[in-house]
Amino acid sequence: MRVRDLGVEDARAYRALSTGAFGGREPATGPRPFNPAETAIGIDSASLPGGVAGVIAAGARIRHDRITVGGGVAACGGVAGLAVHPAHRGNGLFGPLLTAVIARCQAEGMAFSMLYPSNPAIYRRFGYQEVARENEVQVPLGDLQRLRPVPGRRLVPVTEETMPRLRSLYRELTAGDNGMLLREGPLFPDGLPGDGWSAVLLEDAEGHDHGYMSWTRAAEYEAVEGLEVHEILGRTRQDRVALLQSLGSWSTVTAHARVRLRTEDPVLDVLPSGRLQAAPGILGIVMMRVIDTAAALEARPAPAGLDGAIRLVVEDSTVPGGTCRAAGTWIVRAHDGAISAQCVAEYDGQEARAGHAAASRPDQGGSSDGAVGEVRLDIHAASLLLAGGRCMADARRLGLLAEGDPTTARFLDALLAGPRPSVLDAF
Ligand SMILES: CC(C)(COP(=O)(O)OP(=O)(O)OC[C@H]1O[C@@H](n2cnc3c(N)ncnc32)[C@H](O)[C@@H]1OP(=O)(O)O)[C@@H](O)C(=O)NCCC(=O)NCCS
């Protein structure tokens, strides 16, 4: 089955497929072209039994995002608008399409792929693993009245002019997270997002930025809870208090705010009362898949003070061999704050040329003859762990293959430590 690149001439047929599946209408002026930071691929209806020319039977877009990986940055293919035409559903197109998506992420040099599944089970079969869930709470605004103003902090309106300050704060304050999109153009255009989006910056008396809060105030006729808070990011605990205190000022017009949070968001720690409720509605699941194990590892810095090496084996039977570089055996080394992952053959060759005998020190997962402790992961465990913030025991609790002696496992856990992944942008 041939999966091909979709070009400008396919935009109309692809949009008919995606709006047919997910709703929405194309503007009367014609279909929007593909974003230059997306790769669109698809299968022609005409190539299938009963198919018709000019119709895309199955298609998907791959966003060229970059995400945070515990202080580093990795390229990530965000899968959006994946759909099969109703006339061709149930005929086995999903597998070849998703396999082509994975291969294309590899060809584009991506370390990971990410998606929001409507049906996680069908993606899990191809190595995608749930790494995060959207997280929203209902905050009773009356409770925030108890918060006192924070000295030395003032609020600044966010306009076209001050928006770059917010963008750079977002980048700075989420740099240590796992899974957060860097929000770069052209997927995230410069300027204000529009559609009622508003924000305030928090600065000190010298004009240095310390945080921001962004929200959308629902119009009176809309069924949504009064205030949707997208993000509350503060440099310190007190900065988050100052932003919540400002949120409390809405209590005269609405009783609750729906606040979107990161996984284990530090904002939760400064909410003054325990009267929180999960926001109603279905919260999205975020799945990720390793595309290139070495790139995924090398993208992140090694934690300070961690030195040593392990042998990492990743098994992937979910896609044909050669689809991507997730499976294989690597010597993974942490040294001087950096991680290197060398394919075993390449590693052995280099070591031999350099005349080095030892792969690592015995007390750090290796032995003096160069053999190192081994961790063996299936693709599901690799996708879970390499996204960051989870440990070998988490993978085993989920029934995934994550084997290794305790010392070696501890080394990998230390290497990938950090907050559990969060993603604040749905696509
Ligand atoms: C979901 C969708 C992409 C599946 O494509 P498809 O070509 O019909 O799927 P296939 O025929 O290749 O079947 C793949 C597997 O998915 C299962 N499947 C397909 N649709 C399903 C559904 N709605 N619910 C549960 N399982 C489903 C099939 O049973 C099959 O499993 P099997 O191999 O064990 O029989 C397609 O139905 C579709 O476009 N739906 C609307 C848009 C959508 O949901 N897109 C995904 C957004 S993340």
Automatic annotation (TrEMBL):
One Pfam family from the record: SCP2_2
Cross-referenced SUPFAM superfamilies: Acyl-CoA N-acyltransferases (Nat) (SSF55729), SCP-like (SSF55718)
Biological process, per Gene Ontology: aminoglycoside antibiotic catabolic process
UniProt keyword annotations, A-Z: Transferase
InterPro entries, per the entry: Acetyltransferase_Eis (IPR051554), Acyl_CoA_acyltransferase (IPR016181), Eis_dom (IPR025559), GNAT_dom (IPR000182), SCP2_sterol-bd_dom_sf (IPR036527)
Entry annotated with the keyword Transferase: yes
Domain N-acetyltransferase positions: 1-151
Protein name: Acetyltransferase
